[in-house]
Design goal:
Chain lengths: ~260, ~110
């Protein structure tokens, strides 16, 4: 109820240049706080966090030429630990080359096709997940800060609309669980606020690292809505809105979730 | 070759008990699941893990299909001398992956 009131008040006053999120900034907390202590411990210890295996694989891919005799990521970007620091915190972002808002996975693929003249990685493939996890890992601890103005604005608005849109046979919007009922129980587990700051994350349920889009598809299936395919602009827009909604939360990649 | 992570101290006193943590990437397919067409996915797991310390076996584990993907094993050993610890994972297909780390007695 409290969140609903704040939501209403902020709209009426129009203090925020953006439409409200339904969350008070002081309440914003990572999905980390809604997982068990054991899962938190797994995430905190780099020798127990299986996501680090993907980071390692991504590091190898970073240095590997995309095609025989071709360039590697490192050929242009150099040391990822220096030059990729903070990059993931700014995604999804408007990309002039693509002419739309793209997420980090797509950013890597744009680079691969345009600069390395190599075929794009399949979305959700092991290689793309590894490289994305490695790049996002360089921003671990840095706050999310995305640009929602300028050319990104219409995409942001579409993402916001999607967040409040009722979908599927259960006729549920993201906001109904993740704004209005976070902290309550759903099927025996606490409902998180739905932030994507740990992704790509290792989910114990998946026994693998997966992208935020994979998680969003699961939510769609959960409310019995038809999920969009990987890479759908609808998901990228929603990712942008979610990133803005999670502004200030530190990147945790690779997070561990149940 | 699968990726593996080993975390342990590189230096220790003689007689000290050290903790060794190992994590390896592996699907650990149990052999009872079916794919989207209904066909059984064949079992593919790591079935044995052995740690040797300067050639002497200090820890061994038999792994079974109920063990989750990317098995994480942590165990302890007593530091006896400077030398090498070798970690071996045996796959169902017969391949053995070996990682080694050095430890120095100070």
């Amino acid at each position: 109820m409290a969140t609903t009131l704040v939501f209403g008040a902020a709209s009426a006053l129009g203090q925020d240049a953006h439409p409200p999120t339904g969350l008070r900034p002081a309440d914003t907390r990572s999905g980390y706080f809604f997982t068990s202590r054991e899962t938190q411990a797994m995430q905190d210890d780099d020798s127990a966090n299986p996501g680090i295996l993907w980071v390692q694989e991504g590091e190898a891919l970073w240095r590997k030429a995309a095609s025989p005799g071709g360039t590697s990521c490192a050929s242009c970007h150099g040391d990822a630990t220096v030059n990729m620091k903070g990059v993931a915190a700014r995604y999804p972002a408007f990309d002039a080359r693509a002419g739309r808002v793209i997420n980090l996975e797509q950013g890597i693929n744009v680079c691969r096709v345009d600069r390395q003249a190599a075929p794009a990685f399949a979305l959700e493939s092991r290689d793309l997940l590894a490289l994305t996890t490695y790049v996002a890992h360089q921003s671990r601890g840095l706050p999310i800060e995305v640009i929602t103005d300028g050319p990104a604005r219409p995409y942001f608005e579409a993402g916001r609309a999607a967040f409040f849109l009722r979908q599927g046979q259960f006729n549920l919007a993201c906001a109904q669980c993740h704004d209005e009922r976070w902290g309550q129980q759903l099927r025996g587990h606490p409902i998180s606020q739905g932030h994507g700051n740990a992704y790509p994350a290792y989910r114990l349920e998946w026994q693998s690292v997966g992208s935020l889009q994979r998680r969003l598809r699961n939510c769609n299936i959960g409310v019995r809505a038809e999920p969009y395919p990987y890479g759908a602009q609808e998901y990228v827009n929603l990712e942008l809105f979610l990133a803005w909604r999670a502004s200030g939360l530190p990147i945790e990649t690779p997070g561990v979730r149940r | 070759m699968a990726r593996a992570l080993i975390r342990m101290p590189t230096q220790a006193k003689k007689g000290e008990v050290i903790e060794i943590k190992t994590l390896i990437a592996h699907p650990m397919e149990p052999g009872v699941r079916r794919d989207s067409t209904g066909r059984l996915i064949p079992r593919h797991i790591l079935n044995r893990f052995v740690c040797t310390y300067n050639g002497e076996e200090v820890f061994r584990a038999d792994l079974f299909p109920a063990i989750a993907a990317n098995p994480f094993l942590t165990f302890f050993t007593v530091v006896t001398a400077s030398g090498e610890l070798a970690f071996q994972w045996t796959d169902d297909d017969g391949t053995i992956q070996t990682e080694t780390t050095q430890i120095t007695v100070v």
